[in-house]
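Handoff note, outgoing to incoming analyst
You'll be picking up this chain. Sequence as last confirmed:
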Amino acid sequence: MQTDNVGISGRDRAAGMFERQADGCAELGSPLYAELLRRGAADIRAGGPCAAAVAGYERAPGPDAIALRLLGGVHALVLTGRAPELAEHYPSVGGAFDPARLDACWGAFRDVVAAQLPWIRDWMTRPPQTNEVGRANLLITGLLRANPQGLQVRLFELGSSAGLNLRPDLFRYTAPGYAWGDVDSPVRLEDAWQGGAPTWLAEAAQARPALEIVERRGCDLTPIDPLTKDGALALRAYVWADQPARFARLSGALRLAAEQPAMVEPLGAAEFLRGVSVREGTLTVVWHSIMKQYVPAAEWAEVEVELARLAAQSAPEAPFAHVAFEPERVGEAFPFRASVRVGERDREVLAEAYPHGLPAWAL
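Most recent structure output, in case you need it:
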């Protein structure tokens, strides 16, 4: 699709989406992506290569994250050695982002988009799937809160992507006064709590230093196989290139995925939940993180029906818990909050966190 067919108003809308994502990247510690997206927004308005890359997506809803799609497509080229001049500026492959060389960095980025436009246009068709491992920080918090008996756990995840967060018991979590999980784990979620973990969590971690997860299943409309070359590339490409700690966590999680099986079925959330029931002697947990916004309202209403069914089935000998980490409206703000609901009890909000899951802070 050529930019000649794209109206000025459409380009303005796409540029605005890039600028909003740039602000988010800056807030979450990615100066490289913040600057590239600001330059990209100007390039879209001018009808440059970035406008051609996103043509046809100008009216996409916010959850389609077209700016992150473009960044992911370019990053995949860097990771596979097809953009050597840009690689000099990408820490993910040993380069360094220097604000004093921003013009050179942007020029290399723009050249890659122009030279690899058909490939990037193909990449734009796939939704962003970071499978952010740091969000397991909130999952394990909910699991420890919901499981004072130390029951075996059956874990079911909605919107699993590659299913990496179906293995939260294999990660290591630390903060002042708090440590949980395998000390030799290749996934280390350090500084997990801002200001220290809540007292109840530190005590629960001491009382239950391990959990036994006996079933790990998830669903996703377009699941990624982390054990394939293409699957691992997709996951790496959507990690922001100047955030090495996230890369390290992902690399460790890919190692664990090869060691501990987990099933991710190509199903929608409601259909998947229809096949889930509680089981005596185990804690059945349904978990999801920052995926609700991608589910149509009509389908989410069906998800809530299934969650209510499972809550009604919950019993002391066969409990059910719903753990979520999602943005919630609070006044004019939308903080990311972790919550847990056991059976039909009242929902309990446990913490807030940055969208990548680290650090969290108690409420």
